[in-house]
Amino acid sequence: MRISKVVIPVAGWGTRSLPATKNLPKEMLPVFKKPGVQYIVEEAIEAGLKDVVFVTNQNKTIIEDHFDYNLALESVLERTGKHDLLKVAREVAEMVNIISVRQKQQLGLGHAVLCAREVIKNEPFALMVGDDLMFNADPGIRQLTRIAEAESMAVVGVMPVPEHKVSSYGVIQGEEIGPDMFRVRDLQEKPRSGEAASRLAMVGRYVMTPDVFEHLQDLSAGGPDNEIQLTEALRVMARNNRLLAVRVRGMRFDIGDWTDYLIANIYFGLQDEELRDDLVQRLHELVPPPSK
């Protein structure tokens, strides 16, 4: 099978990042010089995915606008001779084909995926959650698409997390069948510490086969948040022996977590040769060495 589309759900409220996200989508919070969602799209492009399907809502048109031309801004940059910045602005608009669908009710990740059904139709597709930024010479989502295309099977991306954090994730239960590859037998959604089947947590990268839509269609919204859970559809696929997991290699930042968000900005600042020395100096001033 061949994968060319990626679904990126961006309709959530971003409550973990309030008050910063009261009027600005969390996906547009800047991470160094770019909004977080741009890193997600760039990862998809590096993996050869050509069509980006945003599952959005009426309050988040700013995300689609970011990947469109801004003729007024371009006119100012051209008139003032800022051709380098003009090139940057146009490259963002030209990087990918954007398709937008509305999630009219906020009923969770599973429902967001279901909203993309008419666009995806009967094709396999990648799914990337915008909270998780991943960086590696081999893009995280490509590590999954490579296995999915070879095995003609759905794949979830996993990473090991500390025991005290498993209750914040969905974790897999299964067995390793190759280097960094697992046959998934079941899934647990946010298990209590000490009750998790593993510490391998799903981290916002998936490749789905179109049968996921049938499984999602059979589910009803429920739980404390009245949501349709993607994990429940994945459990059906696992029990049908149709789900693999890949341990994703690379650096990951959960930008819905304030510590990770700030570390991500520092990380990119340290890669910038013009800023690095000043940034290191200021960090030393803010965090003096421990007294002897």
Features:
292 residues; alpha/beta; Spore Coat Polysaccharide Biosynthesis Protein SpsA, Chain A; 9-stranded mixed beta sheet; two-stranded antiparallel sheet; 11 helices; 13 strands; 37% helix
Structural notes for this entry:
The protein has 292 residues and is α/β, with parallel strands linked by helices. The chain has two domains: 5-256, Spore Coat Polysaccharide Biosynthesis Protein SpsA, Chain A (Alpha-Beta Complex), CATH 3.90.550.10; 258-292, no CATH class. The protein contains eleven helices and 13 strands. It has helices at 36-46, 61-66, 71-79, 83-94, 108-115, 117-120, 140-151, 211-217, 230-239, 258-271, 273-286; strands spanning 5-9, 30-31, 34-35, 51-56, 97-102, 125-128, 132-135, 154-160, 170-178, 181-189, 200-208, 243-247, 251-254. The strands form three sheets. The protein has a nine-stranded mixed β-sheet, sandwiched between helices. Strand 2 and strand 3 form a beta hairpin. Helix 3 (71-79) runs antiparallel to helix 4 (83-94). It is globular. The protein starts with a strand and ends in a 6-residue tail after the last helix. The mean pLDDT is 90.
